Amino acid sequence: MSAPKKVVLAYSGGLDTSIILKWLQTEYGCEVVTFTADLGQGEELEPARKKAEMLGIKPENIFIEDVREEFVRDFVFPMFRANALYEGLYLLGTSIARPLISKRLVEIAAETGADAVAHGATGKGNDQVRFELAAYALNPDIKVIAPWREWDLSSRTKLLEFAEQNQIPIAKDKRGEAPFSVDANLLHTSSEGKVLENPADEAPDYVYQRTVNPEDAPDTPEFIEIGFEKGDAVSINGEAMSPATILTQLNEYGRKHGVGRLDLVENRFVGMKSRGVYETPGGTILLEAHRGIEQITLDSGAGHLKDSIMPRYAELIYNGFWYSPEREMLQALIDESQKFVTGTVRVKLYKGSARTVARWSDYSLYSEAHVTFEDDAGAYDQKDAAGFIQLNALRLKLLASRARRHKG
Amino acid sequence: MSAPKKVVLAYSGGLDTSIILKWLQTEYGCEVVTFTADLGQGEELEPARKKAEMLGIKPENIFIEDVREEFVRDFVFPMFRANALYEGLYLLGTSIARPLISKRLVEIAAETGADAVAHGATGKGNDQVRFELAAYALNPDIKVIAPWREWDLSSRTKLLEFAEQNQIPIAKDKRGEAPFSVDANLLHTSSEGKVLENPADEAPDYVYQRTVNPEDAPDTPEFIEIGFEKGDAVSINGEAMSPATILTQLNEYGRKHGVGRLDLVENRFVGMKSRGVYETPGGTILLEAHRGIEQITLDSGAGHLKDSIMPRYAELIYNGFWYSPEREMLQALIDESQKFVTGTVRVKLYKGSARTVARWSDYSLYSEAHVTFEDDAGAYDQKDAAGFIQLNALRLKLLASRARRHKG
Amino acid sequence: MSAPKKVVLAYSGGLDTSIILKWLQTEYGCEVVTFTADLGQGEELEPARKKAEMLGIKPENIFIEDVREEFVRDFVFPMFRANALYEGLYLLGTSIARPLISKRLVEIAAETGADAVAHGATGKGNDQVRFELAAYALNPDIKVIAPWREWDLSSRTKLLEFAEQNQIPIAKDKRGEAPFSVDANLLHTSSEGKVLENPADEAPDYVYQRTVNPEDAPDTPEFIEIGFEKGDAVSINGEAMSPATILTQLNEYGRKHGVGRLDLVENRFVGMKSRGVYETPGGTILLEAHRGIEQITLDSGAGHLKDSIMPRYAELIYNGFWYSPEREMLQALIDESQKFVTGTVRVKLYKGSARTVARWSDYSLYSEAHVTFEDDAGAYDQKDAAGFIQLNALRLKLLASRARRHKG
Amino acid sequence: MSAPKKVVLAYSGGLDTSIILKWLQTEYGCEVVTFTADLGQGEELEPARKKAEMLGIKPENIFIEDVREEFVRDFVFPMFRANALYEGLYLLGTSIARPLISKRLVEIAAETGADAVAHGATGKGNDQVRFELAAYALNPDIKVIAPWREWDLSSRTKLLEFAEQNQIPIAKDKRGEAPFSVDANLLHTSSEGKVLENPADEAPDYVYQRTVNPEDAPDTPEFIEIGFEKGDAVSINGEAMSPATILTQLNEYGRKHGVGRLDLVENRFVGMKSRGVYETPGGTILLEAHRGIEQITLDSGAGHLKDSIMPRYAELIYNGFWYSPEREMLQALIDESQKFVTGTVRVKLYKGSARTVARWSDYSLYSEAHVTFEDDAGAYDQKDAAGFIQLNALRLKLLASRARRHKG
């Protein structure tokens, strides 16, 4: 790979990406463009602008954007249509944000004439893979620089030295090492590393930042009603809202009731197991409610097919293949199933849990006429069941006859 | 089907199966053998003996058995190795009990020279399918009688008339109609019908019989440690126990903390949607803990394969295909994966939820040496990730080049 | 089911469906509408009109249609995009024609005010299921009459008696029983029953009607070039043609070279095994060529996903679920994959086989630059493979370490 | 990676691996052990011994073994139980041989105290992955040396120079470059590269080495009968034979009749497409016959499950994951299905094709009593089909009602 001339950096404004910014300038002598996105991580973005300016980035090379609506509308919601869970439990909060960042990096590179993009993910994690696969899928000729895989700033001490040598301001609380590493966006906050590294040790309370402890949550349950249209949430308690607003509100409900905590040991794409603590307050409610509305509006053939491909879909997103033909094919399948997933679900929030307690829809396939224990007025002829069973049993009988024949 | 001469009836001792007993005698003039199983449903069995005797069943034709250990060891535990959930949520508590009952019915038929078996399931539900497929799979020549599909006792009034005409005692509280229908065994209690028939109405509190309301559960969390060997639970808090004892104890923990309630609209095999309220206190804890121990002892390739076939496995059990070659093939696959699923999980129980908070094992695949944020002493070369990404990206780049080529 | 007033009958003009026509009139006293379709079965349709008239059908109740283009365009081609094979070998020639016939029956019922449709399939086969599931999926209130499951004309003798009593002319060669049963359309001819019933006996030569015996095929191979656009065949040897024309031509090529014979024992949806002899001359060539063009235009992720869902897709069609949400979902997935499946394949036809020998496309993903044994000018860095392997190996090493640890 | 001290080399005795041998000695100054296996590639092994000795290998460090029986029994046959085809067409002849070679390399390393193994696969292909994943899965601490990824002998000229400088004899016909690259074993011969690199060019005749051109095959078909026990071939024409003998004989039948040629563009695990010409004469017959015997002895539920996991199983083998938990899990599933796959198949060989024409078995599930067009004496009640269809249709009717409701 020839040296990059102009690099678009995914820039948070924090110490680490500021060091990367400087390192790119000094190591490659290249022009740096910064991209700072508001994905709902809950941090001010303007300080990032000031810091970038201070580090010598030209104003026209500083891109700061609020991408929350796009994030929820085009990434989070399509994923939730699938009820996606990685390894049965993880709501993919980090995974789903990476493709959007890469997409904007590549687009800004095209706008600014940059030939490279850079990110601050390490060489051990999944994020490097997600950033880079997305970037290459969108621009096959882009260069991707992953400083953590290249430089020799392998200890905290060296990083701080580099910062000092390069006049990068170090916030007081960044002198010591953080007790764990955090990623946050509108969908979730993840924590990993350091104090969490031994999966036999319970996660300390201070790791949780996004939700109250269920023990401290209100003693009274709260009920909310989530409206859906074609598989996407569109309202809360009857009030229509934009995608990002809905997720923001659900986050607040979830936070208050301690919903969405997960302590997980998962399998990284790069081959090792890792332990993470996830808080996905709104997403956990959303998954529950989406399943609730599907229960009455989705046909069993459709639902079982969706369930059967879900693990693969989740794995693709986890592994960084959002921009791949197979993810798009699965999305086409999933979206096709959601045409009538429209209606309302009532969810009960209480002390860490979110449970569907009622659901209704104009598009319901639930037929009280068929299922009733009362007289069904001929909707269903119980005698049909005899034939149904006989034909389903036929092959089993033939197997049993063979088994008997060959026993003695 | 020629008329049966001797029928083994799955007999609970309750009103409905007593009516069936009598109906079989009068309709077919056949000898009846009763089989009453203790599956952990929490009812005395001896009254069933007395009632059977009173209805004219010869003592040698009355079979009363405690099958709880067999139920948990040979049915529940194998299923839990798969983390089986039907339609994402249902722990299959009713489905998994039916094959065992059918197996004993067929065995007792062989022992007593009976040519038929009978059950009390209706023509609208899944249980008829489960009973009958299992029976035919075990004896292709057995006759199965399903009185609910045959007789004309189509209303509560007619049933009670029949009972009175035939001197079947009717408990006072059975005069009126039950407000919903119940099935129970050591794994779960299910409720459906009547007051539950409208899925838009929240289930009334009195439907729940097996667990305390989470609001009424203790205000302090409780932690338990579940030991596993080869995928099966073998101890609680360090004390080794038999399968049924473990499940019984977990049920008590779950009951106390309000764990395992589920309000679900599901798709029946016979083609309609139905709404059920399930309480699976111990099973819900067991699933959580089993996932917990798999997190550190199961390889990702193995785990992802298991996850991908799980929906099919669960569907087979739900649909009544326990005794089918494909269920046995999937079981072979699952069991093969569990050889090292041995270790201990700590679970926190609180107000309706059960969450893994720690897990450890001599067979752990978790490698702190690899995952650490600290210096890993060369366990993992971050530069390998670059090659890994490049080769995973190659096809995406070729796709992107094609897309660009054909855009203009 | 109340008695039908007006029935649309799938009418071939042959003896069996003429008997059904008369039986419907006499049994139900209902008006009969006939639908006779040209699906490419190779028979004149006008005699069917005359016969219907002779049996008292009003001219406005006689529908005769050439549906060959619709058949290939909307049914055969979508299915071939999936490379669908039932049980690894069967090209689904009968299965794919049934939904189209049902669709027209239901549409004609709506046009003519009929409340029922009728078909001539027996109660043992798959076709009854296919006809009826499709009909119900398109009109939930339609009545379906399947005379073979209802009447008591259970022997050839009784059928002929009924025909004679009702003045239905019996062609001389229909007096005796056919030595096997045949279904034909533009995609295939199937033969089953009678002389074919023992799968240990080789099928007699006279069973094959649609292809020459490979031993009698030309001694010289023939090469044809099939052009594809978005997964569908659009030309032969450079000449653009309509879907039905292409399949007709491919049938002629296949017939001449003895391509597409299959002797199969398959599993029917109704639970039994059956033996069929299939001739699918054009379809066999088409499958081979479609795979050939996919080889260079389809990404591996896309292709492997398609392969993994294909058996389910084929099973759905075989079982009669063409008009089901899950088939449509899978179709959406498949169609999404075909956007660039455009190019040309050269196929060699010789003595019973059709083999791809060359393929090219403007949309090819094949990169000689990457794969070449010669100098690749830096397109691919072989050192990347080391990292790729190391990370893929990581979990296997951790497994091996565990195995070693626990051996001694 | 520290320098290896003693290396076990997969040594063919040919020019390339001789150069590797010398390069290992000179580059690493390490002791070399050679392993030469007879996998049925059809070459004498003793010349390899002489050449190794001449290159300075101590006699006790030269391992020459006939592993054909192990190859077929423990690798080829288990794979054929799955009817494994990669990308619908490829019989995995190269893929399945690599794990066995790696297994012996690792075992010999343990016996001889070697700390490394080496292979002659390039950095662009799949074989490097297969060799190395297998080696690491069997010994997590083994070093693997892949000279083609390390050295700078990047052109034919440099290789020949190195050979001359190191007194490695160069066979006259090896001076020029081979027009394509070959791999062979008892299962197949593959050819790729050079003259085959353009998939739009038909493969020249001289590429095919293992089978006669179908045009030159006998004008008269030949029929053979293959006996199976539990999924494995055990006899030909009634004569019991060992696994390797059977495959050898089937190869001869296939060769003679031009069976098993395949021209394929496939997707390599390392991300690129590649074109190969494969000849798998005996394997092609074996697959056909195995499917033939499964048709009558395998239940549909079992067969459909097998079919659905086959693509994944094949992909695992292709990608080099023979020694992985998931392949072993799938194998357990597959083997479970083969318990009754016992019987005999008659296959017709003619001019490039192998077709099942008859099959019979004591374990057949085919029931003429059920399927017959004649009177079935009550084996099957056609009326059952009505109920079967009604219940399968129920959900489709509910869907259709909804669709109608919302149309207006």
Automatic annotation (TrEMBL), chains A, B, C, D:
<protein>
    <recommendedName>
        <fullName>Argininosuccinate synthase</fullName>
        <ecNumber>6.3.4.5</ecNumber>
    </recommendedName>
</protein>
<dbReference type="Pfam" id="PF20979">
    <property type="entry name" value="Arginosuc_syn_C"/>
</dbReference>
<dbReference type="InterPro" id="IPR014729">
    <property type="entry name" value="Rossmann-like_a/b/a_fold"/>
</dbReference>
<keyword id="KW-0055">Arginine biosynthesis</keyword>
<feature type="binding site">
    <location>
        <position position="181"/>
    </location>
    <ligand>
        <name>L-citrulline</name>
    </ligand>
</feature>
<feature type="binding site">
    <location>
        <position position="127"/>
    </location>
    <ligand>
        <name>L-aspartate</name>
    </ligand>
</feature>
<keyword id="KW-0067">ATP-binding</keyword>
<dbReference type="GO" id="GO:0005524">
    <property type="term" value="F:ATP binding"/>
</dbReference>
<dbReference type="InterPro" id="IPR001518">
    <property type="entry name" value="Arginosuc_synth"/>
</dbReference>
<feature type="binding site">
    <location>
        <position position="190"/>
    </location>
    <ligand>
        <name>L-citrulline</name>
    </ligand>
</feature>
<dbReference type="InterPro" id="IPR024074">
    <property type="entry name" value="AS_cat/multimer_dom_body"/>
</dbReference>
<feature type="domain" description="Arginosuccinate synthase-like N-terminal">
    <location>
        <begin position="6"/>
        <end position="169"/>
    </location>
</feature>
<dbReference type="GO" id="GO:0005737">
    <property type="term" value="C:cytoplasm"/>
</dbReference>
<feature type="domain" description="Arginosuccinate synthase C-terminal">
    <location>
        <begin position="180"/>
        <end position="398"/>
    </location>
</feature>
<feature type="binding site">
    <location>
        <position position="120"/>
    </location>
    <ligand>
        <name>ATP</name>
    </ligand>
</feature>
<dbReference type="InterPro" id="IPR048267">
    <property type="entry name" value="Arginosuc_syn_N"/>
</dbReference>
<dbReference type="InterPro" id="IPR023434">
    <property type="entry name" value="Arginosuc_synth_type_1_subfam"/>
</dbReference>
<keyword id="KW-0963">Cytoplasm</keyword>
<feature type="binding site">
    <location>
        <position position="278"/>
    </location>
    <ligand>
        <name>L-citrulline</name>
    </ligand>
</feature>
<feature type="binding site">
    <location>
        <position position="266"/>
    </location>
    <ligand>
        <name>L-citrulline</name>
    </ligand>
</feature>
<feature type="binding site">
    <location>
        <position position="126"/>
    </location>
    <ligand>
        <name>L-aspartate</name>
    </ligand>
</feature>
<feature type="binding site">
    <location>
        <begin position="10"/>
        <end position="18"/>
    </location>
    <ligand>
        <name>ATP</name>
    </ligand>
</feature>
<dbReference type="GO" id="GO:0006526">
    <property type="term" value="P:L-arginine biosynthetic process"/>
</dbReference>
<feature type="binding site">
    <location>
        <position position="95"/>
    </location>
    <ligand>
        <name>L-citrulline</name>
    </ligand>
</feature>
<feature type="binding site">
    <location>
        <position position="90"/>
    </location>
    <ligand>
        <name>L-citrulline</name>
    </ligand>
</feature>
<dbReference type="GO" id="GO:0004055">
    <property type="term" value="F:argininosuccinate synthase activity"/>
</dbReference>
<keyword id="KW-0028">Amino-acid biosynthesis</keyword>
<dbReference type="Pfam" id="PF00764">
    <property type="entry name" value="Arginosuc_synth"/>
</dbReference>
<comment type="pathway">
    <text>Amino-acid biosynthesis; L-arginine biosynthesis; L-arginine from L-ornithine and carbamoyl phosphate: step 2/3.</text>
</comment>
<feature type="binding site">
    <location>
        <position position="37"/>
    </location>
    <ligand>
        <name>ATP</name>
    </ligand>
</feature>
<dbReference type="InterPro" id="IPR048268">
    <property type="entry name" value="Arginosuc_syn_C"/>
</dbReference>
<dbReference type="GO" id="GO:0000050">
    <property type="term" value="P:urea cycle"/>
</dbReference>
<comment type="similarity">
    <text>Belongs to the argininosuccinate synthase family. Type 1 subfamily.</text>
</comment>
<keyword id="KW-0547">Nucleotide-binding</keyword>
<dbReference type="InterPro" id="IPR018223">
    <property type="entry name" value="Arginosuc_synth_CS"/>
</dbReference>
<feature type="binding site">
    <location>
        <position position="122"/>
    </location>
    <ligand>
        <name>L-aspartate</name>
    </ligand>
</feature>
<feature type="binding site">
    <location>
        <position position="126"/>
    </location>
    <ligand>
        <name>L-citrulline</name>
    </ligand>
</feature>
<comment type="subunit">
    <text>Homotetramer.</text>
</comment>
<feature type="binding site">
    <location>
        <position position="130"/>
    </location>
    <ligand>
        <name>L-citrulline</name>
    </ligand>
</feature>
<keyword id="KW-0436">Ligase</keyword>
<dbReference type="GO" id="GO:0000053">
    <property type="term" value="P:argininosuccinate metabolic process"/>
</dbReference>
